[in-house]
Structure prediction request, 664 residues.
Amino acid sequence: MRRTRFTATLVAAAAVAGGLALTSPAHADPTPAGTFRKLVGVGSDTTQDVLNALAGDTVNKKSYADTAVKSASGAGIASYDAIEPGTGSTTSNITTRSGGPSFLRPNGSGKGRLALSESLTGDKYPDSSGVAIKNQIDFARSSSGPSTSGTTLTYIPFARDAVGVAVKGSALDTLTVDQLHDIYSGTLTKVNGQTVHPKIPQSGSGTRKFFLSAIGLTDATLSPDIPTVQENQADSAVEEDGALVPFSVGSWIAQNNDVAPDYSKQAAADGAHLAAVQLPGDTGATTPVITVNGKLSPVTAYYENATFGRDVYNVVPSRAIDPTSIFFDKDLYDVFVSSGSHTAALASDSAEKVIAGFGFVNEPYNGSISVAKHAKLGGLEESGIDASTPAKPGLKATLGSGSLKLSWTAPAATGLPLTDYRVTLTGSDGAVVAVKDLPAGTTSYTFTGLAVGSYTATVTGNNLNGTGAAAVWTGTVKFASTTKATTTTTAYGKTPKVSVTVTDSHGVTPTGKVTVKEGGTVLGTGTLDASGKATVALPNHLKVATHTLTVSYAGSGKLYTSSTTASLKIVKATPSVSTSAPTSISHTAQAKVTVKVSATGTTPTGTVRIYEGSRILATGTLSGGKVTITLPKLSRGTHTLHAFYTGSTTVNSKAGANFTIKST
Prediction:
């Protein structure tokens, strides 16, 4: 793909190859009448003829159907003239969509950008007395840059043009920037003895705006005595000696080479020509055009000059050429945008041959949307509109397993309604992980399939003025873990144990600690082994009851925390009762019986009774797990006795083995 500018020789050759003969203006809106195409453009008459040609229409009796520019899907351009074809009327209407409204034809760059702005907002064009034209226009032809700041509109460079000065009379063959300033401010009325008769293009003309800026003036400092004429029409503007008017050099070339409809050849035949201009910093004057093989051709030095050379643009809604936007228009993108490996259809070899044939110079940056490569950004060009963007939404984040759910509430209303939300996720290195544009009614979005790591998420509410303030969340996304725990019924005094297993669903081996609590009390901790398991020993003095335990996993660098509950039943300990007593005793003496009660992990307390049959002979209280009880005197004979431990809150009751004492 050739992306270098055409030389003057190639331009002239393209013009000659056209074989065009000048007649009355034979250009038109999309033909035949009633033809509608998807990509509708209006505005500047500087580029209208070349856009008509690129649309595949007939321009000056030459059909350009074979070189019509279309998108990958076949969508074509519909380019509507700045003034009515044939009649020259500036008050005629156009209809750009089947069944759409009829509205005033936008005349000039400013009016084209205004119409595009109001096609976006849905307001009436050209003012409150007009008609609503929502979605009736897709792009604006513009020979000048933005008039308002903002990001709503992208000015895509289409080609290189220059602004010259069409003059009549040899006294004006050479002009300086200072002379032009003084002429148009009204302080210089004669040049080389010739009275000057300056003219200026109509209000809203891109050429007018550019020219005044180039010579250091504005509409406010322009002499009010200078009459207004239709842009790029020398026949009606450069009639008398001393006449001069700013003129698109590309348009002058195209008209005089019989490529574009003629509004200037009669004036040229009567002596009108483009003056040579002493460019800032030069000692001599530079002419804008040269003649090659009988045809006019651009002078590159003049076109590339920073004062009088200019890019001409196709202006499109920024959101419509953003592939991540819900408003993305693939057809518009295909036709107008060069980005990365994607080349605009308007920057193809065949398109650039057509562009060169109309007196423009092709540049390597044609179709660029980068502000570093001649593209520009601008705001809506509708006066009195609220230029504010939305405040930040109220944002809440919910982490999931390799996922992030963002929920938000709408920002406060602004003058222009909310159009969409932009959700952006970036990684810890600042690289964009994902971008999602969502309709204005959306209140949440979930990013899934995320790797473990730190992320920053932003949510903006947007309107036609651009991107609103960002609500920001920063945090770490991990994978979910699952904690399971089991217990077994345990006697008081024995060590209860909780078996814990932690698992995940992403092949990550859980590591780290687990904690067992009852309420706010930590009962035990453990460290997971290589299989994600741990056994946590609890205190052996938990009260006899059913305990509800909370088992928590502390998480790791890759896994979230998790927890579960488990029931642990603690029952009374089972004691052992042993007795030590004499085997015989005098019936006049009192026997002493020593009883020991033991249980695993605890020292029983409480009462011990000595029974003979069902009769209690004596009682005693354990101390240190034993007690010595003195029996009453026993009658002569053999007595079968047993000790009985009555139990406690932590130990079950238990009868000891029978023992005998013989009383003599």
Summary: Residues 606 and 622 are 6 Å apart (CA to CA). The first helix runs from residue 8 to 18. The first strand starts at residue 39 and ends at 43. The radius of gyration is 47 Å.
